[in-house]
Amino acid sequence: MKKEKVQKQSAAIMKDLKKERLFLDVLCREYTSVFCLDFSEKTLEILKLDPNANAYDLFVNEPQEKKKYPSVIRRYSDMYVADECREDFLKVMDIDNLKAKICASDHFTYRYKSKPNKVQQCYFEIDLRCIDERIPDMAILAIKNIDDIVRISNREAILNSLCNDYEVVYFCDLETDYLQVIKDSNPKITAGEVYKFSEVVEVFRNAKNLAQSAAEYVQKLDKDYLLEYLKNHEEISLQFCINKSDGNQTFMETRVIRVNTDSGFKVILGSRHIDDIVKEREERNRRLNEAVRNARLADEAKTEFLQRMSHDIRTPLNGICGMIDIAEHYSDNPEKQRECLGKIKESANLLLEMVNEVLDMSKLESGKIILEQVPFNLYSTAEEVFEVIEKLAEERSIKVNCGGKGVTHWDVIGSPVHVKRIMMNIMSNAVKYNKDHGSIDLICKEMPAETADTVLIQFICHDTGIGMSEEFRNHIFEPFSLEQIGEKIGYSRTGLGMSITKKLVDSMDGTIEV
């Protein structure tokens, strides 16, 4: 009985609404479609339907008949809603979602974008309102076009955006040669003043401080050019230069943005200084050019390195092959055999050193070398290096001295293998590039540390070597860098030793200087 009573009440109310169709037409004049949505039956009934409305095609054959809401909204979405909005549209317009919205509030609106319809409308708003609290299962669903509102909103948004960033903002009608000042940094020009667009451009065209390079810019500001260009483009951006009274130049940018209207389009013009942008762009180009130059130099260095390595590897390999042939020839001479094996070992060690440097550099660049954190004695590590260096130095009568000044913390935690490698690279270079009967001094000094649990050790290596040029000193830590020297060096020269040393020092948060 209760259900029948509600149905009778609903029927009576709907009868009253139909009697007041004229009232609805006046009230809903801005809406192209008005429906009664029945949540319980999930149906739509027409209250008003404009022939230009998108929904008209869905009801044209049976205008008086109620339609099932889910199927209507699905067909409407497929036929009219823009592809990028369809998923959201179906989610919002789901009947259960609408029922929840109308229960939470007696009014709900939703905007969406449509495919251009027969009158080229694109934006619509759906307005859902509760009819009467006595019949919560019914609501009025109305649809209206909001293209004008969107255009005004877009215009306001563009104006607000430009006014924030641009010193000059004009609203222009190119067809009627109309220009209205929205904003101008010139205190003599106030907002709201109206001019002819062509006259403003002509004044600018004749400006004495306009740089010669701006001729093309002024030409593109011609209203006929803009009218033609903006038919197929959203905007045009122009940059030009002005000569300042102090002899310097300042850079400007003008953007002309199209704003569509029912009769065509208007434009919003904004101008601003872009000195910072130009400076940043020039700096970016400078860094890019420098990066390209460095990459080219690095490529040339690698090419030179490969050529040099090919030669350096061939030398010990030829030596090894030659010694093997000699050893085979003197197979019955033990003394000659030992001499050949010794020279083969020297050549093999030379090859191993060269290969290890290449592999170490590759690991460092790829981040595959992991530093240890283990206890070790710094003095013992230095002595191990000292013993090897002393033997190399003896061959050329080079004297090696090693000493510590004020070092009290020899027992430390760190990466002994890599500390040893750093010391070995530096001191072996001191031997390689030294003079016969020269000397090498390695001094260890303990420096004030930043924290109580850290020790700072300074290693200083002096030698009486052949020296290096000022120019090469600036590149000594770069990979594959080698200085051209006149005398023959009897050691491998990959140009990676000091680069490896620098990367290891950096990874330990240390510093290295020459």
Shape: elongated
Mean pLDDT: 79
How far is the first residue's CA from the last residue's CA? Answer: 102 Å
Uncertain regions spanning at least 5 consecutive residues: 19-23
Helix share, percent: 40-55%
What amount of the residues lies in strands? 15-25%
The whole-angstrom Rg is 43 Å
Quantity of strands, as a count:
17
Count helical runs. Answer: 16
- Helix-strand category: alpha+beta
Largest sheet: 6 strands, antiparallel
**Spatial strand arrangement across the major sheet:** 3-2-1-6-5-4
Characterization of the model:
The structure is a single chain. By secondary structure, this protein is an alpha+beta fold. It has 16 helices and 17 strands. The strands form four sheets. A six-stranded antiparallel β-sheet has the order 3-2-1-6-5-4, sandwiched between helices. A six-stranded antiparallel β-sheet has the order 9-8-7-12-11-10. A three-stranded mixed β-sheet has the order 14-16-17, covered by helices on one side. A hairpin with a 4-residue loop joins strand 7 (168-173) and strand 8 (178-183). It starts with a helix and ends in a 7-residue tail after the last helix.
Brief summary:
This protein has helices at 2-19, 21-27, 56-59, 69-80, 83-92, 95-104, 147-165, 197-205, 215-220, 223-229, 275-329, 334-366, 378-394, 416-432, 470-473, 497-507; strands at 33-38, 43-49, 67-68, 107-113, 123-130, 138-145, 168-173, 178-183, 194-196, 235-243, 249-261, 264-273, 374-377, 399-405, 411-414, 439-447, 456-463. Helix 14 (416-432) runs antiparallel to helix 16. It has 16 helices and 17 strands.
